[in-house]
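---------- Forwarded message ----------

FYI, see the Pyrophosphate--fructose 6-phosphate 1-phosphotransferase record below. Original note from H. follows.
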Amino acid sequence: MDNNLLIIHGGGPTAVLNASLYGAVLAAKKSGCVDHIYGANNGTGGLLREELICLDDYSPEQLKLLTVTPGSAIGTSRDAIWQEDYDAMVPILEKHHIRYVLFNGGNGTMDTCGKLHKTCAASGKEICVMGIPKTTDNDIAVTDHSPGFGSAARFMAASAQELCADVRSLPIHVVVMEASGRNAGWITAAAALAGEKGYGPDLIYLPERAFDEDAFIRDVEELLKQKSGIVVVASEGLHDAQGNPVVKPIFKTERATYFGDVSSHLANLVIDRLGYKARGEKPGLLGRASIAWQSPVDRDEAILAGEMACEAAIRGESGKMVAFRRVSDEPYQMTPFLVDIDEVMMYERTMPDEFINARGNGVTDAFLKWCRPLIGEPLPDMISFNRMSGRK
């Protein structure tokens, strides 16, 4: 019987999702223990449809392109999976002689990873199932951070820096930039790194704190007494003290509820209540697809996570996920380890209190110290000769 490997991507892509795929494929080839390497075409649905992509014959040069390709080279999905689907996967895996399965994704995907592991174990099949963490939101439990976040953080910090430079040049409005991360504010907070170059946002609002529209307007009004151009970064998941989203749902699906733009809503609040020009900006998918702002630290760790998961599966490990433990900030050092999948399945990791300032409209130095190494080399230096104008 052949010993084949299957890699499955789940959830939203990142700038380094394919880098983990690259690491897993390289480790499989190097091991000499894997006969064929497959990717599930568009996630778990591809496995259930038996749509497998053979990755055996791609050249080293072609595979290397995975490290600088955004999205997912084998496709991904947000399939709803039930126990009968897990039961159906086992004979499909046996049919294709797949002994090793690697799931690369976030909280939902790790839940799927754990459930397939348990289904295989209950059926007595020697199929090893391992998890590779992936999320721009950085909300997977146990691990210090997840591949995908460092690049999203670098994009957000760089975008905030560029936006602040623009507003400084023409300080005539309040600009609200919306960041991804409905329940966790890691990406939103990363915008504060732009301030280390002198072009940081004035206000940052995270979903870990209840959002008060009156307090927001007071914050903006106070700043407008000092200058005429203001940059605000706000999470897409802002909610009030009762837990209600600040913008109403637009439509619902079986899997999720979709909301209007927080950036537009906050900009309209400024216009309506302060009579001041304002606009919203929403990078959206650009924040997870940017190779131009890909973090080299993030890329290297993503490759490492793929390699380590593959090697662990070949050794016979199953029902675990690769995680990172921070050893030091300066110099930055981390060590990878394996954690039982039960410890991470569907547990959402949010920003701790010590990373959020007392007023709930910014972050602390402790967060900057933690986040800084993950984005790689420092953001570019910039120069400006004009002074910020006060409000007329």
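H. also flagged this: The first helix runs from residue 17 to 31.
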